[in-house]
């Protein structure tokens, strides 16, 4: 249950409407607060400043109406521009990146400021009163006066100035955010950050330990694993005296009859249901707890760039650069940890941990065949593998990297010929000659 609630919260927090909704609600509260201060005459001291010019009802209504109309028009334009940018990025870089652009905080904040400004002006506009809009006297015979919330008008003008600044930022942010180097940089830095958080021990060479085996528990539903509640699994294992070994990782697709976990002892149907409830399923993968998701994004961009229809080796080279940087982090760390280590005891709950060879095959191995078709990409492929090898902390990991480099050259023998193949061979000889 907690995994589903967490997945729901992550989905809400990363949705395109969350920040605009929060800012709009805050704008309503701010409007009610400034109106209250105006009604209680708590801001009469503003008239002491010579630069302060109070607004009249006609001018106040005109200002609020103009700002509100402009903000809702700009918000519509911002949304249209965002959708166009998302369509462009999805078509050129792959549909997998659609989530990255929809979750972009800059876009969400920009749209939120425009909508919040509209909402604020709309709430304030409602309370502006002109004596000519009412009877000349109330039932007591007293003359009615108009009401213009002067502090609220100043805040409205400040909101308008802020919105202009945000509009300039947005017009710069959109083209900058769809540049391929920016896209790859954001993915690569997020991947490296997740690697450092998941594998915090530097200078180690420990690989995942052998997993325990036992009685399998199979899935009862289907979908991508979005969140695994390790803390709940640990609680179940402690209460029932079990050891639980996962057969899947976050991001895997499961369906009925697929083994999800293995338990050291046979579990009752009720316990099996509790264990399965620790896995939140959805229609798509998410980067939460899933290192392979970000690796696959880099691989997808590289494969698209090297396809015959696009033939953009320099984009592929940039992807290889970031894959090499991530692999260098992995080559220098203990890999025996699973995601969110603080939430469970590894003696009771053992995640499906991946060794260094798995990450090499998932990244460089996935683009090897396409990289071998391009002399530029093939040479950079070898250079990055050599850079990772220089920082690897074990002979086993260095051997895996040399084997991958050899596989690239073997593949290039089938794809290249003439001087291009000679250059690849020479690069291999120069970089790995000490071996």
Automatic annotation (TrEMBL):
Highest taxon, organism lineage: Bacteria
Keyword set includes Transmembrane helix: yes
Chain ranges passing through the membrane: 61-88, 109-128, 148-171
Keywords: Membrane, Transmembrane, Transmembrane helix
Protein name: DUF2254 domain-containing protein
Organism: Tardibacter chloracetimidivorans
């Amino acid at each position: 249950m907690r995994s589903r609630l967490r997945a729901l919260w992550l989905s809400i927090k990363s949705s395109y409407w969350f920040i605009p909704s929060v800012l709009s609600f805050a704008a309503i509260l701010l409007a009610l607060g400034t109106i209250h201060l105006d009604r209680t005459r708590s801001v009469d001291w503003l008239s002491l400043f010579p630069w302060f010019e109070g607004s009249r009802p006609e001018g106040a209504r005109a200002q609020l109406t103009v700002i509100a109309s402009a903000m809702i028009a700009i918000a519509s334009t911002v949304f249209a521009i965002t959708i166009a940018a998302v369509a462009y990025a999805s078509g050129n870089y792959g549909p997998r990146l659609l989530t990255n652009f929809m979750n972009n905080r800059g876009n969400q904040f920009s749209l939120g400021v425009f909508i919040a400004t509209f909402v604020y002006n709309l709430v304030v506009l409602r309370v502006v009163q002109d004596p000519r809009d009412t009877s000349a006297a109330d039932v007591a015979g007293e003359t009615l006066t108009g009401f213009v919330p002067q502090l609220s008008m100043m805040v409205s003008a400040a909101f308008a100035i802020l919105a202009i600044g945000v509009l300039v930022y947005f017009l710069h942010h959109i083209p900058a955010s769809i540049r391929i180097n920016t896209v790859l940089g954001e993915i690569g830095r997020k991947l490296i950050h997740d690697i450092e958080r998941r594998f915090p021990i530097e200078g180690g060479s420990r690989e995942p330990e052998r997993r325990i085996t036992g009685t399998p528990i199979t899935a009862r539903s289907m979908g991508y694993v979005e969140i695994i509640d390790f803390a709940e699994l640990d609680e179940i294992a402690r209460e029932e005296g079990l050891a639980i070994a996962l057969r899947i990782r976050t991001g895997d697709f499961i369906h009925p009859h697929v083994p999800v976990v293995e338990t050291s002892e046979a579990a009752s149907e009720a316990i099996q249901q509790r264990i399965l409830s620790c896995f939140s399923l959805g229609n798509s993968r998410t980067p939460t707890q899933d290192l392979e998701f970000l690796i696959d994004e880099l691989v997808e961009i590289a494969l698209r760039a090297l396809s015959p229809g696009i033939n953009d080796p320099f984009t592929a080279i940039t992807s290889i650069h970031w894959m090499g940087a991530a692999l260098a982090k992995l080559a220098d760390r203990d890999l025996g940890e699973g995601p969110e280590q603080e939430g469970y005891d590894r003696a009771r709950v053992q995640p499906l941990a991946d060794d260094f060879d798995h990450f090499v095959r998932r990244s460089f191995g996935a683009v090897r065949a396409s990289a071998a078709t391009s002399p530029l990409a093939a040479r950079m492929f070898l250079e990055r593998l050599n850079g990772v090898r220089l920082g690897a902390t074990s002979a086993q990991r260095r051997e895996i990297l040399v084997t991958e480099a050899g596989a690239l050259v073997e593949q290039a023998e089938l794809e290249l010929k003439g001087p291009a193949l000679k250059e690849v061979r020479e690069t291999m000889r120069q970089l790995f000659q000490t071996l």
